[in-house]
UniProtKB/TrEMBL annotation:
Keywords: Acyltransferase, Transferase. Transmembrane segments: none annotated. CDD domains: NAT_SF. It comes from the Bacteria. Residues 1-151 form the N-acetyltransferase domain. Its EC number is 2.3.1.267. SUPFAM superfamilies: Acyl-CoA N-acyltransferases (Nat). This is Ribosomal-protein-alanine N-acetyltransferase. GO terms for molecular function: protein-N-terminal-alanine acetyltransferase activity.
Amino acid sequence: MRIRGYRVGDVEAMFQLDIACFTPPYQFDREMMQEVAEAPNAIVVVISDEGDAMLGFVIVHIERKGRNRYAYIITIDVAPSARHEGIGAKLLQEAEVQVSAGGLHSIGLHVAVDNTSAIAFYQRQGYQQIATEENFYREAATDAFVYVKPL
């Protein structure tokens, strides 16, 4: 396994991995995937196998609200065939290191209230539920839990 940053040619592999990981309407389209991955405020961490096949990735944006800056996880995807090997945890850990190195002290995310496996994963990684946002996933008519982890 190799941990690396984003490369411009990664968009198609990221898009295909997202399709494998999520059902509509939770999937990104190619254009949105490229937009969030190549945003100037993006941190992208990729884990690939020795042949450079993508096993997983995480996209984090550094956002600003007034004077406050915060890190927000846009998406984390791990290939179904590579799950339960610690890849998701490694992706989060590397993203958290980069966020912390940028001077930020917390990282947050939204997760669908019915995504029990993701909720359990985030809790194991030290994320704490702080709120519920109604109808966050509008197209799915699904609420989301808001999770935050201090760094």
